């Protein structure tokens, strides 16, 4: 009886398995799981010999063939080919099945044979899933040999123009997985689903041998398996429509990516299941309303998006689900709600992750600036694109090529194939209802051009390069775009730097000069400064700008920029903070945590009540962290309570010591106080040398005014038992004054008038870079800023060791050490041989400039002219441009400083600092 019982279980299990499509991988499943195949490369590295290669992979990353970037002319490329062989066993229980051999992606032409026989026509097109029915070619109960001849460059010229001539690295190989799909002879070939936000659903089901089936059933269940509705269709054809209304569903959106299971069952006349197929779907409605906007589930939306290539420094275009999850999470962490697939369809698991975590997707047919795919190959690839991707709720548009790379004869083909009738875009162009122009100047945003009524959303804007663009300029752009009802958002260029590990150069990273270091992230997804700028500007929670004064009542105005989320679904955490001094180990002290809540419907404002501590003015700052309904950190904001002057006075406790002594000689003014010796120039009053306990601290040659050269009119000094002072006056009545008291600290007071329309303003000193090992400071950090990229850094105590990273170019250590830092309270420069020094600001809103970032070769638009010297204290700093735009074209924040001395009390900018050695 036990034997019969187990036999029944075994037979039932085999039957259940046979009713579903079995997936049998011949390759690995991704970059993190590969299978060795036999391989022969025709030319380049390690060619002309049979060896093995992991599949899937790009063969260059396994040490074969040759590297080339897409800009290289075709006649200068090595057009290598690769021959693959792999054996697989086909069990006899597959004999009565339909077997499809599926390739998820091969670059670029693929000729496939099974046991020496052609599986079908050579497939052309790198980024598209294709398959062959190979049931008649397989030998059951024994090993079978799969052979694939891959050509890196296509025999079809239009494919080379669309895919191989582009602004990205060009690879070759079977770079996506290969598998067998085993189905019953009577089966569901595929399904195409259209599920609307109101619960209405229709599906086109494509059947094989449909005359042997009696009915088709559709069951809708939530992701936990609870069935919501079921429908049946008994009139079957090769293409069968089944439809109905599902009650109790919740719409899909990036804010609430609700998913459901749609299970299709093919039933025979006896009521037995022949075959079943399950799709994961979302109910949502996309409308593009002419002269109005993009509506999702009846709500007008704005796309906060980024362009993304499928790329990894080690794997090239080969990816994995883990890489997709990481990428989408990083986008969500930047408060993005959209991604554009530039410039080809991604791996299907990337779309799966967009469905489940919530991102709008623009899915793109390849094409590059000149008309690309010819009519025949184009129609075939459009079909392959849509057949694979049609059911993803995340996809809201199809793109027909990039920047003029469309074939206009294909425009209507998308609608003929897509059951959802998604709109087609021509990225970079004014097309039908939309204007997706690329890389506009800020002035374009007034929308007074020739497309005033079109829905405007640039599918590429603010082109990054090194540390320029992306976050720089975004606040000005986004303010105009957010307030323009006809603007539907936009897409930044680009997600990550595309530096490849060159296997022919000892895995050295190569960005092909300035072609590929364009990312918000580094090549391994290191977070650059723009990451936090974008996160802050695109936060769906926006606090009104506010400085905390003694009259603060604990109320903050907050704006809800969500489309579907009430702020009562979010969580707010408040911290009241004390910050350490320069020599203390603990950075944040006396933390008091609270929770607060508020209610605001989407796109409305409200008041957040903080319930301050009774002694709240004794704290240094308070910080708010906001979390979305899934407990993802939306952003954090910190408001200083004390001014820089108040904090400096708190930390600078004076100790009475010996009276300072002032002497003169050899063109110098020398002051000694509390074991410290200061040497100043008698000609211009600048500090020349500092000695502490006999050790030289190499701060020198300052202060020098940076906005314009000033002529000294008078140098004077005064001393008594309390203090020594040295005053330097200039011809326009600007001045600075040194004051040394009994505590030995060096105080500096500066008053000056900067030149109008200056790029930066303040004072600077020399300090040799070779003597710097680190920095600790209280202010905004840890990332540097530019005039047009102020948001992102947060107020607190920060530390970082010296590095010489050039963003997107070398080292890739972030945050970078050199550059501008905002809202200085105090800073401790850590020296290598000498002990360095600490400086305290008594003036608000000062910038600290630490050394001069090295500049890579490339367009001057992202290169900055820094003030002279090494350590600067500034009232203003300059802006940075993008790859294609000079800074002055990026909006108000990118302009030079306007200074009218008659409209400023006293006509001078004031600065007070204390140096402690």
TrEMBL record:
The keyword Signal applies. Residues 1-18 form the signal peptide. It catalyses: Hydrolysis of terminal non-reducing beta-D-galactose residues in beta-D-galactosides. Residues 193-284 form the Glycoside hydrolase family 2 immunoglobulin-like beta-sandwich domain. GO terms for molecular function: beta-galactosidase activity; carbohydrate binding. Residues 291-408 form the Glycoside hydrolase family 2 catalytic domain. The keyword Hydrolase applies. Belongs to the glycosyl hydrolase 2 family. This is beta-galactosidase. It comes from Sunxiuqinia elliptica.
């Amino acid at each position: 009886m036990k034997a019969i019982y187990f036999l029944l279980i075994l037979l039932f299990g085999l039957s259940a398995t046979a009713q579903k499509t079995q997936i049998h991988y011949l390759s690995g499943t991704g970059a993190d799981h590969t299978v060795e195949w036999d391989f022969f490369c025709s030319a380049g590295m390690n060619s002309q010999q049979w060896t093995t290669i992991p599949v899937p992979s790009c063969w260059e990353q396994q040490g074969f063939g040759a590297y080339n970037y897409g800009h290289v002319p075709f006649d200068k490329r090595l057009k290598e080919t690769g021959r693959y062989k792999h054996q697989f066993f086909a069990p006899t229980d597959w004999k009565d099945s339909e077997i499809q051999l599926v390739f998820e992606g091969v670059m670029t032409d693929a000729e496939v044979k099974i046991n020496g026989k052609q599986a079908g026509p050579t497939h052309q097109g790198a980024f598209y899933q294709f398959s062959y029915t190979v049931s008649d070619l397989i030998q059951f109960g024994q090993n079978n040999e799969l052979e694939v001849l891959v050509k890196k460059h296509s025999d079809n010229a239009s494919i080379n123009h669309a895919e191989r001539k582009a602004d990205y690295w060009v690879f070759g190989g079977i770079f996506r997985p290969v598998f067998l799909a085993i189905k019953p002879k009577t089966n569901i070939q595929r399904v195409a689903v259209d599920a609307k936000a109101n619960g209405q659903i229709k599906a086109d089901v494509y059947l094989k041998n449909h005359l042997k089936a009696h009915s088709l059933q559709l069951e809708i269940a939530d992701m936990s398996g609870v069935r919501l509705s079921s429908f049946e269709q008994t009139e079957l054809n090769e293409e069968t429509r089944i439809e109905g209304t599902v009650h109790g569903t919740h719409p899909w959106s990036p804010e609430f990516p609700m998913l459901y299971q749609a299970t299709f069952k093919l039933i025979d006349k006896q009521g037995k299941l022949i075959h079943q197929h399950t799709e994961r779907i979302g109910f949502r409605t996309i409308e593009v309303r002419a002269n109005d906007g993009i509506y999702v589930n009846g709500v007008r939306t704005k796309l906060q998006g980024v362009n993304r290539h499928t790329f990894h420094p080690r794997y090239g275009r080969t990816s994995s689900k883990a890489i997709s999850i990481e990428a989408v999470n990083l986008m969500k962490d930047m408060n993005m709600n959209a991604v554009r697939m530039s410039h080809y369809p991604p791996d299907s698991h990337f779309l799966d992750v967009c469905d489940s975590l919530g991102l709008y997707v623009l899915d793109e047919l390849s094409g590059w600036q000149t008309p690309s795919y010819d009519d025949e190959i184009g129609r075939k690839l459009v079909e392959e694109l849509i057949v694979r991707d049609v059911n993803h709720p995340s996809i809201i548009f199809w793109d027909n090529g990039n920047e003029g790379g469309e074939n206009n004869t294909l425009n209507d083909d998308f609608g003929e194939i897509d059951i959802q009738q998604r709109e087609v875009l021509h990225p970079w162009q004014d097309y039908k209802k939309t204007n997706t122009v690329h890389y506009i100047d800020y002035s374009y945003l007034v929308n007074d051009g020739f497309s005033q009524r079109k829905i405007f959303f640039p599918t590429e804007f603010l082109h990054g390069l090194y540390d320029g663009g992306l976050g720089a300029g975004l606040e000005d752009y986004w303010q105009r775009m957010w307030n323009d009802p006809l603007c539907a958002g936009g897409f930044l260029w680009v997600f990550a730097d595309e530096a490849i590990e060159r296997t022919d150069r000892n895995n050295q990273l190569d960005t092909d000069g300035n072609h590929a270091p364009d990312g918000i992230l580094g090549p391994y997804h290191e977070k650059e400064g723009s990451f936090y700028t974008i996160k802050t500007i695109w936060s769906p929670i926006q606090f009104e700008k506010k400085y905390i004064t003694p009259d603060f009542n604990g109320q903050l105005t907050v704006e809800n920029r969500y489309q579907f989320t009430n702020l009562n679904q979010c969580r707010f955490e408040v911290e009241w903070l004390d910050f350490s001094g320069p020599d203390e180990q603990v950075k944040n002290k006396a933390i008091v945590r609270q929770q607060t809540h508020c209610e605001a419907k989407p796109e409305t404002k409200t008041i957040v009540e903080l319930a301050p501590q009774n002694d709240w003015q004794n704290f240094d700052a308070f910080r708010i962290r906001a979390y979305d309904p899934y407990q993802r950190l939306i952003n954090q904001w910190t408001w200083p309570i004390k001014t820089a002057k108040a904090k400096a006075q708190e930390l600078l406790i004076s100790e009475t010591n010996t009276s300072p002594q002032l002497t003169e000689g050899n063109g110098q003014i020398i002051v000694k106080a509390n074991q410290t010796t200061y040497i100043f120039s008698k000609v211009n009053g600048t500090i020349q040398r500092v000695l502490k306990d006999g050790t030289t601290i190499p701060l020198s040659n300052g202060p020098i005014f940076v906005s314009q050269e000033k002529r000294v009119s008078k140098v004077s000094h005064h001393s008594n038992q309390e203090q020594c002072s040295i005053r330097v006056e200039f011809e326009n009545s600007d001045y600075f004054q040194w004051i040394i008291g009994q505590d030995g600290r060096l105080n500096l007071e500066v008053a000056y008038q900067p030149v109008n329309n200056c790029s930066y303003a303040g004072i600077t000193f020399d300090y040799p870079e070779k003597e710097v090992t680190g920095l600790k400071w209280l202010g905004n950090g840890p990332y540097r800023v530019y005039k047009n990229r102020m948001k992102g850094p947060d107020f607190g105590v920060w530390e970082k060791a010296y590095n010489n990273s050039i963003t997107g170019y070398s080292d890739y250590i972030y945050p970078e050490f050199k550059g501008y830092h905002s809202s200085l309270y105090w800073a401790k420069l850590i020296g290598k041989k000498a002990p360095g020094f600490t400086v305290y600001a008594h003036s608000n809103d000062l910038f600290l400039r630490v050394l001069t970032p090295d500049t890579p070769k490339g367009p001057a638009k992202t290169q900055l002219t820094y003030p002279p010297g090494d350590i600067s204290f500034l009232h203003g700093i300059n802006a940075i441009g993008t790859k294609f735009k000079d800074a002055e074209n990026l909006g108000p924040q990118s302009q030079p400083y306007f200074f009218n001395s008659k409209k400023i009390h006293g006509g001078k900018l004031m600065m007070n600092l204390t140096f402690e050695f």
